[in-house]
Design a protein that fits this description.
5-stranded antiparallel beta sheet; 1 helix; globular; 2% helix
């Protein structure tokens, strides 16, 4: 029920591997923070926003499609309050403005809804269209006038956030031939497709300072996608590649930094961008997750598509997220969370903690993210059987 509250569940423990103090924020049900391209932290108050099945009245494992709702947690008191009903499972179901006034989210019945947290009003921006499925996180324009999201034609190769080990990942890449980028007006007055492609589309993200420019991706196993990241200009409606890929490049997990650069991860030949609960890749199973024919690197690209910085990355992480000035990354490797200092000519690594997640579902991926000022890191783990949220203060 919207408005229902839960008392603090915060406890502290010492990581066995590093001795660092970790705050476990939740203990009830499954609790999932926003996807790593977004930010669960409120920029104006000491709070986070997340989704949880704690109000469902059911006890389900992450792969059993729990019934999720949106919540706000006050990090001072630990108190949690339910603020919405009916959210699509998974970390990729919601986004918000930095001040958390507006939250756009996907629902179980294939709608896009925006919640104004100041007024409590919800507005449906897009209703279900048969034959299409919503995919990846919606994105709110910097001017707050519209929300953009990706739609792909429905296929029988289903993959959703409850599926284990990237079920259907390769099949969907081949079968989807109609992918669209859709603009919906914030006032609920209508929507339209601004771009249509012959590929599965995903990861649309607006530039943080420009409501006329965004990036999207050709979604699929990284080793099969020949050009992952694309710019979309909303004024000219031009689509152009962001970092042109060569034969050996396998690229993904892109995001906009706070200073409006595009960060990406390039792992080299034989990498499909996945990790499973077996600690292997889902598609290229004959190549170990940390085995490379070339030195992997991460890059920073400007709005013109120019590579402004390249950093060799002889480590393995599934996701990276950059601090506010792009000098330190947090990453989730197979067993640990790590800090990677990229301020100098060579990257150096420090182990933060042992995350102990199973990697069994998309929701259980750690997806570590910095807060807005770079003093805290939020991550998830399903150690113990349910997904819980953890906070590291640096």
């Amino acid at each position: 029920m919207i408005g229902q509250k839960w008392q603090s569940e915060i406890r502290e423990f010492t990581d066995e591997k590093t001795g660092r103090t970790i705050k476990q924020l939740t203990t009830t049900g499954n609790n999932v923070h926003f996807y790593f391209t977004e930010n669960s932290f409120d920029k104006d108050s000491n709070a986070i926003y997340f989704i949880s099945d704690r109000a469902s009245g059911e006890d389900k494992a992450p792969h059993e499609d729990p019934a999720y709702n949106l919540f706000r947690m006050d990090l001072d008191s630990g108190e949690m309050a339910q603020i919405s009903d009916d959210v699509l499972p998974g970390s990729g179901s919601a986004t918000k403005t930095p001040d958390s006034q507006l939250i756009a989210y996907l629902t179980q019945d294939n709608k896009v809804v925006v919640l104004n947290t100041h007024t409590g009003k919800t507005t449906t921006l897009y209703d279900d269209v048969p034959g299409f499925e919503l995919s990846s996180v919606p994105s709110i324009a910097a001017n707050r006038r519209y929300v953009v999201f990706c739609r792909n034609e429905s296929t029988d190769a289903h993959i959703h956030y409850g599926d284990a080990n990237y079920a259907g990942f390769e099949e969907r890449y081949y079968r989807i031939k109609d992918g669209r980028i859709t603009v919906a007006f914030m006032d609920g007055s209508g929507w339209f497709d601004i771009f249509k492609d012959t590929h599965q589309l995903g990861h649309f993200q607006f530039a943080p300072d420009d409501p006329t420019l965004g990036t999207f991706c050709h979604e699929g196993p990284w080793n099969l996608v020949t050009q992952r990241i694309w710019f979309l200009d909303f004024v000219s409606r031009e689509v152009r590649p962001c970092f042109r890929q060569d034969e050996n490049d396998t690229i993904g997990h892109e995001f906009w930094t706070q200073d409006s650069l595009i960060f990406f991860d390039n792992r080299g030949p034989g990498h499909d961008g996945t990790i499973t609960s077996h600690r292997t890749q889902a598609v290229v199973t004959d190549v170990a997750v940390n085995e490379n024919e070339m030195i992997p690197f991460v890059g920073l690209v400007d709005k013109q598509g120019n590579l402004v910085r390249k950093i060799d990355m002889p480590f393995y992480c599934n996701h990276y997220h950059a601090n506010p000035d792009n000098t330190v990354l947090v990453g989730d490797d197979v067993d640990d969370l790590v800090l990677i200092d990229i301020a100098g000519e060579e990257a150096t690594l420090e182990t933060l903690c042992n995350h102990k997640t199973s990697w069994h579902t998309q929701s259980s991926h750690c997806h570590p993210t910095w807060n807005w000022d770079g003093s805290r890191i939020l991550y998830a783990s399903d150690f113990g059987g349910r997904i819980q949220l953890y906070l590291i203060e640096l």
